[in-house]
Amino acid sequence: MKRLKIKFFDIEYFIKTDADESYVQEIASYLEQKIKEISGQEGGAAVPRPVLLAMLKITDDYFKLHKDFKEFKESAEERSNRLVKILDNSLNDKETFGLDEGVLREGLGREELEDSYKYR
């Protein structure tokens, strides 16, 4: 673990973490921005260390879940597109639909289709 110095509302804090310094700064900046949005104030107050650590941890969890969701969504969209393409190819290549004397044919011969209706 390394010791990082972060600035949060112009106050320096030291934390121990395995994360990259730029990532921790990104999380701190995100938190600072959200607090400013909610409070409407530009300046902040000193935040107790345990509260800051909890806020950083919660935001880190949020960032990770957001990243996982984005990757899952992209993967699901890619799989869906592949399935649609497979279905389109299958429908275009293997099944023919036509109307012959009011009877819908799906790759069956006319005689087979007419025979199937005789016994209903």
Commentary on this structure:
The chain is an alpha+beta fold and 120 residues long. It has one domain (2-94). 62% of the residues lie in helices and 18% in strands. The protein has 3 helices and 4 strands. The strands form 2 sheets. The chain has a two-stranded antiparallel sheet. It has a two-stranded antiparallel ribbon with strand order 3-4. Helix 1 crosses helix 2 (49-94). The longest helix has 46 residues, at 49-94. It is elongated.
Task: Look at the helices and sheets and give the structural class.
Answer: alpha+beta
- How much β-strand is present in the residues? 15-25%
- Report the span from N to C terminus: 77 Å
The oligomerization state is single chain
* Element string (H = helix, E = strand): EEHHEEH
Question: Rg to the nearest angstrom?
Answer: 31 Å
Biggest beta sheet attributes = 2 strands, antiparallel
Helical amount among residues, as a percent range? 55-70%
Q: What is the typical, i.e. mean, pLDDT?
A: 81
What order do the helices and strands come in, and which of them pair?
Elements: E1 2-8, E2 11-17, H1 21-39, H2 49-94, E3 97-100, E4 103-106, H3 110-118
Antiparallel strand pairs: 1-2, 3-4
Helix pairs in contact: 1-2
